[in-house]
Design a protein that fits this description.
The protein is mainly β. The chain has 7 helices and 48 strands. The protein has a domain of 527 residues: TonB-dependent receptor, beta-barrel domain (Maltoporin, Chain A). The radius of gyration is 26 Å and the shape is globular.
Amino acid sequence: MNTVTGIAPQRPPVALRLNLAAMAVLAALAQAVPVHAQAQAPQAPAAINIVAQPLGDALIELGRQTSLQFFYTPETVQGLSAPAVSGQLTPEQALARLLRGTGIDASRQGNSITLSRADAVSQLQTVTVVGQQAGSLPPAYEGGQIATGGSLGMLGTRDFMEMPFNFTSFTAQQIRNQQASSVADVLVNDPSVRAAGGERGGESETFTIRGFPLDSTDMSFNGLPGLAPIYKSGTDYIERVEVLKGPSALLNGMSPTGSVGGAIDVIPKRADDDPLTRVRADYRMTSQYGGAVDIGRRFGENNRFGIRVNASHRQGDTGVDHQDSQATLGSVGLDYRGERLRVSADYVGQEQRTEGNTRGMALAEGLDVPDAPNARRNPGQSWEHFKTRNTVVAGRAEYDFTDAITGFAGIGHTRGRFSGIMGNPTIINEAGDTQTRDAAAKFIFDTTAARVGLRARFDTGAIGHSMTLAGDYLLRKSGYTLSPCPGLTDSNIYNPIGVPKPDCGGIPTDVPWNARTTLTSVALADTLSYKEDLVQLTLGVRQQRVEAENYNEATGARTSRYDEDALTPMVGLVVRPWQQVSFYGNYIEGLSAGQTAPIEADNAGEVFPPYKSKQYEIGVKYDSGSFGATLAAFQVKKPSGNMYDNVFSVNGEQRNRGLELNVFGTVTRGVRLLGGAVYYDAELTKTPGGANTGNRPINVPRFQANLGAEWDLPALPGLTLTSMLVYNGSQYLDQANTQKLPDWTRLDLGARYHTKIAGTPTVFRLNVFNVFNKNYWTGPATDYGSMYLGAPRTAMLSVTFDF
């Protein structure tokens, strides 16, 4: 039990790259240390065992055994006793028995329950919180699938009802229950997000949010942009996956590659107050086996020091022909939480390798999109492969100078290395024949990001203020080398052809830096609140400088330089006339580096200012405490540069309008929903010469939706059935709107069972992806127009023990 006056800002973790041998050592160490099982958060009836004792102590125990959090003053429970409560009970049933006859009223908001008693003396100075989440993250919402809030960059942590944006934060519980192995697997739950490239053993995942591409190298790590593992991030170190829809230049600064559709932030795990030792074994079709260890401990006075260690490994054949993959991940998160000082550090390392990998396919001009082949077919070659290595090191600190002024700082570095032999196949005729120009390639990325700032809270008359001043810095260096293989590799998407490996000269070893990007900015924002947050108005502006240099691969000479700056404002409004309903709106801008006219243009060398994408959004949010929803209407305009009449200029614009609906939580006892739908009215409003003006943009369907459901079977306590239905409308591969991918629907099913084996809490999980083995093309997640095959039916089975 902790006594707090509010929720402290979240602190980052530390991670350490561990191999499979280290995982075994950690498991042995954990077995040697006696621990308590970490509380699960089942919504179905579960084994509750609370002895007769003072009511305050009984509430502490119920908080440990369930996902509930209790807020009350000490006087509320003073002098009251609770009876013994045991048996297969829901958290609500157990709480009702504890409070029976006490005269205490319980008011619920998600998993948070406020207790009050008419004859208790109110003391506003002290609020008791039972069951506080690790790392002071906002608690999980009813059902445990998403969180009640998250981080808005420089604005700090907010409840989702008080955010002037459409925002979702997926929890570690949802990640475990889905057996999600990558961030893309998690974000399939959000209808506004789609991913491509990773389902069938591809080396990278790229995303679209609100119809605009977001490169995986733009993802944030604990609030620091561009630091998440590049290409494809594993999930065993992740506590939350947060997604913000829409541009976010004021909140986070410009992203490294200029993505404007939204932002993705991964929050690493922290040690909870309850000791944790979790061991998992898993299997995936057709013969992939793996395991994981998750260990958390806190030490010292008031559990001030924490350590969380995760290690996992998986390898074997996938469901795609002649394809083998393996992935190893290790992480360590350290944190200290004092009365005024909070510090954390993280180290994450992961390595992934796939033999016989698949890549996006291009379609020759003039061809219609062919029928999707059998999803198990691999038109690539068994000798095509890739290997990625990532390490992330990050630290963060917060210090309360006074009760009203907090300083914060964070810094981190990520190092990414990619090597392989591969190419992008091009479908050249209606028979599905392909040609691929393979190459031995190596790519390198180094990114350093930092943020420092102050946050102050004060009042001016009836107006409250939360003012933030922040400075951000990002340096990214990248390089690549390609060694083309001789000739073209021929195959067919319906009847793949295996050919001998050509002499590609081996993977390059020395790779020069080809590009360097430096982003520096300073931002000021103030959230003004009136009448106990009935109205909240956020005003802010960021001054962003963008510097970019490119270098000749052979000589190292600088070939171009870009140095421009821009102001990006934001206005956000939240009006909450009732506790369960809030209305919001925003105007915010996104920022992308402008381009330099190429050498062949008549205006060669002309440098264009950064491109500003502009969003207008209004919406309404509903929160009953057990079920929530967000309905949003938005418009985003993004400019682009193009060549016309041999002159390069900013003569292109894409306008995406849409309606979004997100739903989550418990609709009736034991039944939970998670999903929503998006309708897009997207148009190319300006194109060079007007040739494609009025057409639909690449990769933006009219409609996309998904709906996940969970049902706790009343007749079989501990058993939960799950389902996920995903729909994606048709979309174009080209701006001329001549090549069209058909729509597709996919169904995933699953089940999990909570039980105890020899007194050890145990969870069995079964998930079946693409139950009906649907063959379909997924759209491009970039502007390049390549298309990807969806993954075949895949069964995933795991068993998890909490010692």
